[in-house]
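Thread: "does anyone have the structure for this chain?"

Original post by V.I.:
We have the sequence but no experimental structure in hand. Need at least a predicted one for the grant figures.
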Amino acid sequence: MSEPNLAVIVLAAGQGTRMRSRRPKVLHAVAGKPMIRHVLDALAPLEPARTVVVVGPGMPELTEAVAPAESVVQDERLGTGHAVLTAEAALGARAQDPDAEVLVALGDTPLVTPGTFDRLRRRRAEANADIAVLGFHPEDPGGYGRLICDDAGRLRRIVEAKDATPEELAVGACHAGMVCARAPALFDLLRRVDNANAKGEYYLTDIVALADGAGLTATHAVAPATELQGVNSRIDLAAAEAAMQQRLRHAAMTCGATLVAPETVTLAADTLLEPDVVVHPHVVFGPGVRVGEGAEVLSFSHLEGAQVAAGAKIGPYARLRPGSEIGAEARVGNFVEVKNARLAAGAKANHLSYLGDADVAEGANIGAGTITCNYDGYTKARTAIGAGAFIGSNTALVAPVRVGQGAIVGAGSTITKDVPDDALALGRGDQRNRDAAARRFRELRQGAKDRSEDKG
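Reply from O.Q.:
Generated one for you, tokens below.
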């Protein structure tokens, strides 16, 4: 059930100039998921009645990425205060409802957790304050706005770094950019903000000083700095990725998976490793992977969009592409690629094969060098391999084709017709041996070479 008194505004209109990219900054991925989706997913447990994302002009891909959240366009980038005002109309009557509150979040903070958003809300409620801001203590305060409190610890104003005095810059408590406020107070104060500052922008942070002057109250909550690092450059993006990977690895191991060398394993935000899964060094998980209990993934394997059942063994050097379903106790070995294919329980493809658009039934054995020829340049077709079938090495299965239950395909075959159950199929030319022909061939070629050298 949604929280009827809560609305969320996510600021995501920044161009990300320092990213040097045509892609909107918040669409750059961390752990395989756009930054903005990390933020929206962290807000979801609050169950807001309305979520509005402020985007920049000409960002249709961002509008699509944040759906079903509503998007509003900030046509002119005049600062964070102006960005929040841009979303006011989308909130309708809720913007002036005295019982409503608005939480303002940033789309480029992918590490923030649901608990931090909840902490900010609870702090405002506990203090019965009109405004609560989120603070933190970074190792290098740098360009962050400083939280200026009085001797009693009451928040009086926030000073942007470019406008701060040396004494204010010495303050270690910084603003994380996020605010929770009573809705009418927030928008009434924002309409009073001016742009008389070093950047000529309308700062969201100015509402704290304005509230203090108007007899309203402001407070702040403190969150771990590790959650609040923003992303403004590729360097920041790499740092956020490293922090997210550490978090994901810790969670996986806490839930019962073994990562033999955790620092070498790359996980996606939605990777699910069930208890007793073992992951060896240098494995990459893309989005959409679930690995069942007791399965093992060996080194240098890459999995994306794949489901691996309990007890299966993958790798080393295996690649599971989207649509791969690997059954219980099945085996996908070294240099085997699987795409949009199902290997049932106990099926084996141990080496050097490509299985695309295929259904491999229980206990089937796929020999080295087997290829399912699934694409004719225009359309894709499926290959079906029956239970207990044996496919000899270096076989090409030209789809659509079916190999029956218990059938055997001889090595080196090209199979273009269905193979009945329990049949033996051979699709290769007959072998002919010519006695002593190899010796005669060598003598002939050597003689030709000698005559050529004599003429030279």
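V.I.: this helps a lot. The chain has a mean pLDDT of 95.
O.Q.: and The chain has two domains: 3-227, 234-425.
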